[in-house]
Amino acid sequence: MKFETFQAGVWRQRYQYKSFEPVPVNHEWLWEDPTINALLESANRALGELNAFSLIVPDIDLFIEMHVVKEAQTSSRIEGTQTGIDEALMSEEQIQPEKRDDWREVRNYIDAVNAAIAELNSLPLSNRLLKKTHEILMRGVRGEHKQSGEFRVSQNWIGGSNLMDAVFIPPHPDGVPELMGDLEKFWHNEAITVPHLVRLAISHYQFETIHPFLDGNGRIGRLLIPLYLVNYGLLAKPSLYLSDFFERNRTSYYDALMRVRVSNDLIHWVRFFLTGVGGTATKGREVFRQILTLRTEVEHAVLGLGKRAINARQALNLLYRKPVVSAMDVEQALSVSSPTANALIRDLERLGILREITGQQRGRAYAFDRYLRLFVS
């Protein structure tokens, strides 16, 4: 199939509405557009450089946890949640009651990402894996009763308040199993020579067009991207997430997807996707470089604490994973007494590493500001 002659699918009349039925994607793909080749080369180079950083940074898993939190917060924000990245790092008790529903959605996403990446050790990228991940995502939140962990058996829609005024209506539920089966085969089809990033661009478009779940499709579709990259060894660690790029270019993102469905313009979508991969990978590499610089500075600073420097370095390892903490977090993570934990926090405040962010006498939380800012810029 050539991009230039691609026909995305057909609009089929249903009762009082038309659903879009996309064509299968599991086949060879070709294109003449030279821009795609240039973007593909650039994106692959940036991705390789990001992966190299993730292989040489000591204790990389400490910092990957923050990448996951950032992805969870940003991907959920695209869907309308209002949880800040600092709030995502707090315990539920520290969150205002009216914000807890949004907070749970973000925390579920973090759990879903971590579980899915761990599952890749024994279960390849598959519909089964996506269903298990979806079940975790929807646990105990809005939409949990909408066939959690299962493909939909009723019609859904995107935009608008109902099927009559929807912006887009995905395929009829009867066709979802076959379309998702075709997509899974496409991920693993070794008989075709489609580059991974092009295959991934097509896969994300196809997943979002099928919209196989009643709820949570945007988040699962975006999570599909790092799962694919890790599954095929393009990344050793889940260090690339496109939600930040999609959120910053939200209108262009949705427009690019719709242009495929309405105008068969797959070339525009693939260009947009590859641009996002290249830019996000480059930004991720720079974040790792800044993390290494900051790590050197703060670990040198705590050396001046004398005997307390050992505990301070352990506290830093906690802060790399969880840059918003309470005294209880420090006490439990380091297995120290409450007075020792509070004294350590005072030391880190004096050194400018921690800052109290609640302004309260009880339930205080402290942020590793300089580190947090690397993930919100």
Describe this structure in words.
With 377 residues, the chain is mainly alpha-helical. It folds into two domains: 7-287, Fic-like fold, CATH 1.10.3290; 291-373, Arc Repressor Mutant, subunit A (Orthogonal Bundle), CATH 1.10.10.10. 57% of the residues lie in helices and 4% in strands. The chain contains 15 helices and five strands. It has a three-stranded antiparallel sheet with strand order 3-5-4. A hairpin with a 4-residue loop joins β1 and β2. The chain is globular, with a radius of gyration of 23 Å. It starts with 8 loop residues before the first strand and ends with a helix. 38% of the residues are buried. InterPro entries: Fic/DOC_N (IPR025758), Fido (IPR003812), Fido-like_dom_sf (IPR036597), Fido_containing (IPR040198), HTH_DNA-bd (IPR021068), SoFic-like (IPR026287), WH_DNA-bd_sf (IPR036390). GO terms for molecular function: AMPylase activity; ATP binding; magnesium ion binding; protein homodimerization activity.
